[in-house]
Write a structure and sequence with these properties.
Blueprint: E1 2-3, H1 4-7, E2 15-20, H2 24-39, E3 46-51, H3 59-63, E4 68-76, E5 79-87, E6 90-95, H4 100-105, E7 114-117, H5 140-154, E8 164-167, H6 174-188, H7 193-202, E9 204-205, E10 208-211, E11 214-216, H8 221-228, E12 230-231, E13 236-238, E14 243-247, H9 252-255, E15 265-268, H10 272-295, H11 301-306, H12 308-322, H13 330-344, H14 353-356, H15 360-367, H16 369-379, H17 384-398, H18 416-424, H19 430-438, H20 441-444, H21 454-468, H22 470-486
Parallel strand pairs: 1-12, 2-3, 2-7, 3-6, 4-13, 7-8, 8-9, 14-15
Antiparallel strand pairs: 4-5, 10-14, 11-13
Helix pairs in contact: 5-6, 6-7, 10-12, 10-15, 10-17, 12-22, 17-21, 19-21, 21-22
């Protein structure tokens, strides 16, 4: 069988993007979109990828001439779709530690316009330990500041040679946070007021929100190779769904017109509502269902969708309690809900509930607590499914359920202070544990026992879960919701 480098030809296009991050997500999201925009002649640019962390092996990229395939598989508009795409827009992949001089020389490229990054949620941080003479500094923003200063000096502060930043790290205001860190390094390293002014005026830092589930190299690689007609050791599998909201600043929409190529890119003055939509619905559905679903006897999101009781619970949670709190027109929200359930039904994704359940205390705070409070403000009552999800979290973390015995108990993973709390309350009654957990300000940033009826309702449901099991408790919850709807 052919290899990908034998089967795929590369277009010789100018380097317009410097990408920090060689991982599965950026390759199956940004690189796939840029490649498609090139094919439709809406971008005309190539990418150089920089590995931002020390260590690691780039030999596969070197062997395959930086070519790889993105294979989007799943459900779209009710139908199963298979969309393989050979991506040839990446010109080179290099290591900023092992190839420091070559990496810094990229600052001198006149054609380079964009920096795109995905350095994890912890990547955009400031550290005073980073110094200007390091080759390179450790933190991502320090690397950017050092690289930008090289570009500023090479082009003598030409405002036309500023860079547009499109960070995809999953933190709020990622563009603003990156800019703030870069400016702090400029001040710390005494790079001069002219450089700081150039960063402020010539460079554009756009916050963005990204959404696509990427699973990476597939287990059924031989099947994929037969379908592709060639072998690819960098094969990257993702779902068909994608969405990229980009803060509209300056002329970014004109210079990066991926939306004009029919790609799922939205330029908007405010990405906050779209962040709320994703976090509250998709992420909220995950965290609100994962622990309850696991304790009810299933292991993956797909199995939740095939289980009548768990699916009904998730539908009630999302459609009646989470969706009404999203600050967008209801028809937009309903469309996103529909696509979310279709994504959860993807037979090619095997999304583990135990994986979703990692660090669930902080996830519950970020993904479900805002909806709980907004629902109460709007409806004047507690959202039953959200409260039930809190009780399911307590049962999961207490380790008392039969599914959490033996090796499975090791799946309870969180910050040490969270685990210490549940260890200290291991013998509490249902209501005592619910009240203690709700009152734990270090978990939620506030005392949830002050919410009228919350701790009592959570304690009641926890008592039912412990006495009758999760599945029976879910059935009782659904019956209570349907009775309430009939009143």
């Amino acid at each position: 069988m052919k290899t990908i480098q034998q089967a795929v030809k590369r277009l010789d296009l100018p380097i317009r993007i410097l990408q920090f991050g060689e991982g599965n997500f950026l390759r199956a999201f940004v690189d796939q979109m840029v490649d498609e925009a090139n094919q439709k002649t809406f971008f005309n640019g190539s990418i150089v990828i920089v590995k931002p962390r020390a260590g690691g092996d780039l030999s596969l990229f070197e062997k395959q001439n930086s070519l790889f395939t993105v294979y989007r598989r799943g459900k779209e508009s009710g139908k199963l779709v298979l969309m393989p795409q050979a991506v040839s827009c990446v010109k080179k992949v290099l290591h900023c530690y092992d190839n420091y001089e070559e990496y810094m020389a990229l600052a001198e490229l006149p054609s380079l316009e964009f920096i795109i990054s995905n350095t994890t949620e912890a990547g955009i941080v400031f550290s005073s330990n980073d110094t200007f003479d390091m080759r390179p500094p450790v933190s991502f923003p320090a690397k950017v500041a050092q690289w930008l200063y090289g570009r500023f000096r090479y082009f003598n502060g030409d405002p036309a040679k500023g860079i547009i930043f499109l960070p995809t790290e999953l933190i709020e205001n990622n563009g603003g946070e990156l800019k703030s860190c870069v400016l702090r390094y400029g001040e710390l390293w005494e790079l001069g007021v002219d450089f700081l002014h150039w960063v402020e005026e010539a460079c554009t830092f756009c916050s963005t929100l990204v959404d696509r589930i990427v699973t990476g190299y597939p287990q059924d690689d031989s099947v994929c190779f037969q379908e592709l007609g060639y072998e690819d050791a960098l094969l990257d599998v993702a779902e068909p769904f994608g969405f990229w909201a980009i803060e509209k600043k300056g002329n970014v929409a004109e210079r990066f017109p991926l939306d004009k190529a029919g790609l799922p890119v939205l330029f908007t003055s405010d990405i906050t509502p779209y962040r709320e939509r994703k976090v509250r619905i998709l992420n909220g559905a995950h965290t609100g269902t994962a622990m309850a679903g696991y304790l009810a006897g299933v292991d993956t999101v797909g199995e939740c969708m095939e289980d009548g009781i768990i699916r009904r619970y998730m539908e009630k949670l999302v459609q009646t309690e989470l969706a009404p709190t999203v600050p967008l027109p209801r028809e937009e929200v309903d469309s996103f809900v529909k696509s979310t359930f279709e994504r959860f039904e993807n037979p090619y994704l095997h999304h583990s509930l135990l994986s979703i359940a990692l660090n669930s205390v902080s996830k519950w705070k970020a993904r479900l607590l805002p909806s709980l409070k907004d629902y109460m403000r709007k409806a004047g009552v507690l959202p039953l499914c959200v409260v039930f999800s809190f009780a399911a979290l307590l049962q999961f973390y207490s380790g008392k359920d039969s599914r959490m015995q033996g090796e499975n108990k090791k799946a309870i993973r969180d910050e040490d202070f969270v685990l210490a709390f549940f260890e200290a309350h291991a013998e509490d009654s249902s209501h005592k544990l619910a009240r203690a957990a709700a009152s734990e300000i270090s978990f939620w940033g506030e005392d949830l026992s002050c919410l009228p009826g919350f701790a009592d309702m959570a304690g009641n449901w926890l008592a039912v879960i412990r006495k009758e099991g999760m599945r029976c408790a879910m059935e009782k919850l659904l019956h209570a919701i349907e009775e309430e709807a009939d009143v």
